[in-house]
From TrEMBL:
<dbReference type="InterPro" id="IPR003768">
    <property type="entry name" value="ScpA"/>
</dbReference>
<dbReference type="GO" id="GO:0007059">
    <property type="term" value="P:chromosome segregation"/>
</dbReference>
<dbReference type="Pfam" id="PF02616">
    <property type="entry name" value="SMC_ScpA"/>
</dbReference>
<protein>
    <recommendedName>
        <fullName>Segregation and condensation protein A</fullName>
    </recommendedName>
</protein>
<keyword id="KW-0159">Chromosome partition</keyword>
């Protein structure tokens, strides 16, 4: 709202008419508050109409603070008015309500069904014990997980024997007797175990070409511990 468009004389005339209508019940506090609001509005309106040579004038900052304070007071006043109207509506509605201060008539008392409890004292005791009984910790069902029938240790031993006997073999020869994909995977893991033990050396002339495995036997050790990791 533009303050320069506010007619202060109109607001003042309306307030004077309100005070005169109140008669002897007019309030000095209302008059004082109106004078403060009117003076603030008049000062702000004069500041808007006069030129402003300095943007950072301390007086302008005070006017801005006064404007914010006035706006906050107007919002609070509006909130009080709305709450007062709500209380008035609740009060007027409550005056039209009358609680029932008598019991039901005899003809209606017989309509109430009889309360029947289908549990005896023993059943209630069992129910209470079930409520307070500690619940078992949650577990994860692993019955759907099947153990692999392929042993990495056994296939590693087969590869070791083949390489010791032949000296050099490619990966196709090492997996020639495999009938399942898991067996091929187990032999590949076995080769990794032997390579980590420095027992074999790999040779692949071209990418994705034939993989040749050569038995070196240097630094070979028991692979029982390492093979269990892949199990």
């Amino acid at each position: 709202m533009d303050l320069t468009q506010v007619a202060l004389h109109t607001v003042t005339d309306e307030f004077i008419a309100l005070i005169r209508g109140a008669g002897s019940d007019w309030s000095l506090d209302q008059v004082t508050e109106f004078l403060v609001v009117a003076a603030t509005l008049l000062e702000m309106k004069a500041a808007r109409l006069l030129p402003d040579p300095e943007a950072d004038n301390p007086e302008d900052l005070e006017l801005l603070e006064a404007r914010d304070l006035l706006f906050a007071r107007l919002l609070a006043y509006r909130a009080y008015q709305q709450v007062a109207m709500l209380f008035a509506e609740l009060e007027s509605g409550a005056l039209r309500r009358y609680p029932r201060a008598v019991t039901l008539e005899e003809r209606y008392l017989g309509l109430l069904p009889e309360v029947r409890i289908g549990m005896d004292a023993t059943a209630f005791a069992e129910l209470a014990a079930a409520v307070f009984r500690p619940k078992p910790p949650p577990t994860v069902n692993i019955d759907h997980i099947h153990a692999s029938p392929v042993s990495v240790a056994e296939h590693t031993a087969v590869i070791r024997a083949m390489l010791v006997d032949r000296g050099v073999a490619d990966f196709r020869e090492l997996t020639a007797g495999c009938t399942q994909v898991l067996e091929v995977v187990a032999r590949f893991l076995g080769l990794l175990n032997l390579y980590r033990e420095s027992a074999v050396a790999f040779q692949q002339p071209e990418p994705l070409g034939e993989l040749t495995v050569r038995w070196t036997g240097a630094g070979a050790r028991s692979s029982a511990g390492t093979e269990e990791e892949y199990e």
